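Q&A log
Question type: sequence-to-structure
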Amino acid sequence: MKQEELIVERYELALTRIKEIPGESICGEAYREYFSQMAEFVTMMDQALSLVESGTLFQMTMEELREHNRLLYADILPEHYGESYANPEYAVNRLNESIGRMLSFLYGELRSMIPSAYEKNRTFMTIRMELLLEVYQSFVCAAEEGKEPDAEALRQILYWYVSDYYEAEFEEKSETLLDADRDFARRLIMESDLTDLRYLYYFGEYITENELGTAAHLNSLSMENIQKIADTYTEGYRIGFEVTGKDISIKETVAIRYFLGFERVIRQAVQNFDRIGLQSAFYRAGANIFQGRNVNKNGYCGANPNKQYDYDHKEDWALFLDGALAGRRLEAVRNVFERHKELAALYGGPAVVESFGEEPFAPATKSAVCRFSEKQQKLAVENAGQISALQNEYIKGEEHSFTIIAFPVPQIGPRYKEIFDDVVRINTLDYLLYRDIQQIIIDELDKGLTVEVKGQGENRTDLKVQLHRLEDPAKQTNFENCVADVNIPVGEVFTSPRLTGTEGVLHVTRVFLSGLEYRDLCLTFEDGFVRDYSCNNFSSEEENRKYIKDNLLFHHDGLPLGEFAIGTNTTAYRIARKYGIEAKLPILIAEKTGPHFALGDTCYSHEEEVKSFNPDGKEIVAKENEVSILRDTDVSKAYFQCHTDITIPYDELGELSVLTASGERRVIIQNGQFVLPGCEELNRALAE
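Response status: OK
Response body:
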């Protein structure tokens, strides 16, 4: 029997059995309700698959598509989440602590059948249906024996599900990243009538007025404007290779990540990439344990139906992570990359379109969610480092590049169209003007040994950042002159500082990082590492510290200062203040609106040996620190697999100055204004 026929048979057998569950009353009442709901959800997934396979989906009206889309995601929408088994808190209250968590996890895995149904992937649907049946049968057996379900037996079922299917799932994710022939999204983008907004519902993602409104607005723009936006995006990618001396001609694929609604721009970008010899691959943002559920989406996606749902499940690995499973993950990653090493070698890196403007998210903490033990935290960090190092063997950091650009969505407010136009203007500013002004700042910084940064008003920042010593100042520089290639828009100079002697306090009154809000964030540095930290998000110090460690330090005891930069895009700062959208800016733009500091790896992670030069011809030599240099002796200690920028806005900045070898203090910014001669143009936007 052919593999495809076998999957169809398994699918039909599993579906037939699942449809019988609601009519059975073997389990206790609480469990009976849970499994009946799971069976109803699987049945709905089968109906969705039938709509796609029969072509009925593409004949439905806009109203029918909207209602069908709402039904797929209704159970986890905020208004229903409080009484959903996808909510660990509800599941634990209805069932019990250990079993409730695991059954909530199981529902999350079933929910990942939605994209599989739209992609007609019966294999991954069948895997999850069979998992449900295996779990259900264990409850049936317990009930027949007059026993309560065995929590450890249930955990073992889930454990082996993850262990057995990790490689297949990772291969699926890798192929959609590396192989442009996996063209589900590309066909929809390139072949749909983009003036008929029904196409948005064909992706199998949650669709809101943001996606519909974005697509409608882009349809209203002239082809000239669409081409301008697409050219900025794709040229940034190409120039990223050029300025770092990397050979783009040896690459054949680029992975496009974006939010639905931007298809008109993406279609033009695909054509642009085709012209320079790059085929566009599209991979979907993760929706299951294998790909990762995260508030900050990585891949193409629609709206997030409920960020709290993703936040609640972000540590589901705690249910089963142990040394054996960590080893299995590493083995699976190596096997997949070895099978696809030719594709990996041709991969050029991601080209990302971010969106912003949604209401900021401040998560609630819940005792019922899965949380890593201290031992698991260390294991997770170690495993992530091993996987990252392994990936770099096949997708070499010194050979690939990226680009990122961001645009607002309609939820940003009633002046959306004006804001969109202003953001396009920010993204296409005169890079020559900024290049020359930033060179003045760099020349001043290169005279120094230490940069001092102090806040003003409620900002308590008082930080000393140590710079590398230049052996040949006539030919070398510490700072990169960033002129809108990989990081669009233009507007920053940055370096990898020395850690030894970097010390003090970094404080921001309010900041949003990776989609999460931090209030009154305070980080204390000693020899370049975060040694103490606090915020005021929650009522208890313990909750605040855990929030920072989990989401900002990523379970590390401390992180180094991987980057120090000065943002120079005062136009972006002024526009943010003009519309009152400071809290909604993505870090991509926010980092250009003041000095910023990145926790984690340097900007040159895995690319330390690649020579790069500023427009003035000087080589950028500050590419590593006392941690990253360990890559030559113990690579597991050299990288942290994270890089998070924290910006002090100009109005919270009292002074930024550089101390020279002779002890002279040269002030660059004072009371939120650039005071270094030659930088006066930057203050025009601030004055406005």
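Response note: The chain has a mean pLDDT of 93.
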